[in-house]
TrEMBL record:
GO CC terms, sorted: membrane
NCBIfam families: alph_xenorhab_A (NF033928)
Name used for this protein in its record: Pesticidal crystal protein cry6Aa
Length: 397
């Protein structure tokens, strides 16, 4: 256990707070992480379902590329299994961890009358100044009991944090392996389709420009929605992958219109080609998209592991603060913390813990992405167009 703080951070939430008035898990980053996880959960599982999803005949594929499709689907199956387990088991455990922190913060903060930490601080201040032996004994018993209870809660939380961190590390290892395998498939497909020269290479550059624009739209959407602590929704569209839900994206009418224009450009680039070339382009585009998605997922997971590490460290320091108070009482007030406690403002401590409670509550309430629906591009564009019209004031308004 870490030594207690010897300054005004004693009994504060430490790095449970990200320093910006939010949870150690940056909300928009965690939502983006789950967007990439959902990409994996929705991958086709057979060559036939792949061809049907992307709207081409396997016979239209380049012969050598067609032979590679089975291996690609095998990798997709592994990715789908790993991401589905993360979505269904790991992520709920991460959210539950946030809920446990919320509950602890609610007890550490709360009102000035209900706050455990305010009570501990007031009792210790009185303990260090009273001359009444019977009062001193009463205060010592109260402090010891509450501190012991808080340390037990922190021990349980710390165990859960360590377990969560190990699970995230395991997922990171699997995802890195799968990312490397998929990257090899991507490079092989590129070589089979002419490498960096020719018609497909030129189209690939054009498509990447559109996809980069859409990626920015997705990131902006994640940020806008988490700032409002609104429920996130996504749809999955072949070639594009996860895209902001039409109804919620339509609220941002101007941004939605620009995004719709980009989708039209991307769709036109592919649909203008002959069937044989279009099939190759669709597979090439999809594997490039999924390769980038997995690389982004690896980055996001590493960020989550770092955040959990900060939470783990915070609990060690918070536990050290409480242990220091326990030792102070045990030594009849003869402890370096005596002077620190004398100048602490209990109201500010309550306020800080209430801040943790507030933003972890918002985090828990909006941590899950709604079930992602698979839609064809025309269906999505029609829904987005309707949503934009609904949220655009008419000239007569």
């Amino acid at each position: 256990m870490a030594p207690p703080a010897t300054d005004d951070t004693l009994l504060s939430p430490k790095e449970l707070d990200n320093g910006k008035g939010g949870f150690a898990f940056a909300h928009e980053d965690m939502i983006s992480l789950m967007r990439y996880v959902w990409e994996g959960c929705l991958l086709p599982q057979t060559p036939d379902s792949y061809a049907t999803t992307f709207g081409f005949q396997i016979s239209d594929l380049n012969k050598d590329v067609s032979a590679e499709l089975d291996s690609i689907i095998g990798s997709y199956g592994e990715i789908r299994t790993t991401t589905t387990e993360f979505r269904d088991k790991t992520w709920p455990a991460v959210v539950d961890l946030a809920a446990q922190i919320r509950d602890y913060a609610g007890n550490a903060g709360g009102t000035l009358d209900s706050s455990y930490y305010k009570a501990i601080l007031d009792w210790v201040k009185e303990y260090c100044t009273t001359k009444d032996d019977s009062k001193k004994a009463e205060l010592k018993a109260n402090i010891s009991a509450v501190v012991k209870d808080q340390l037990a809660s922190i021990d349980k939380l710390s165990t859960n944090v360590k377990s969560t961190k190990e699970t995230l590390k395991e997922f990171d290892t699997k995802t890195q392996t799968q990312s490397a395998a998929l990257n090899n498939h991507k490079r092989k497909v590129m070589d089979l389709l002419g490498g960096s020269e020719g018609r497909i290479a030129a189209l690939r550059k054009q498509i990447k420009t559109n996809q980069d624009d859409l990626q920015k739209d997705k990131d902006d959407y994640d940020y806008d929605m988490t700032v409002m602590y609104a429920q996130i929704s996504y749809a999955w569209i072949p070639i594009i992958g996860n895209i902001p839900g039409a109804i919620t994206m339509g609220v941002f009418a101007g941004k939605a219109a620009a995004m719709m224009d980009t989708i039209h450009k991307l769709e036109k680039t592919i649909s203008d080609e002959q069937a044989e070339l279009a099939a190759d382009i669709k597979l090439d585009t999809d594997i490039h998209r999924m390769d980038a998605s997995l690389q982004n997922l690896v980055t996001m997971i590493k960020g989550a592991i770092t955040a959990v590490g900060k939470i783990e460290g915070a609990w060690e320091i918070i536990g050290g603060d409480l242990q220091g108070i326990h030792d102070l009482v045990k030594n009849d007030g003869k402890h370096p913390l005596n002077e620190v406690i004398a100048r602490l403002d209990g109201n500010k401590i309550v306020e800080k813990w209430n801040g943790v409670h507030d933003y972890t509550t918002k985090y828990v309430n909006t941590a899950f992405i709604s079930e992602v629906e698979t839609k064809d591009i025309n269906q999505y564009l029609k829904e987005l167009e309707d949503a934009i019209k609904k949220n655009t004031p008419s000239k007569h308004d």
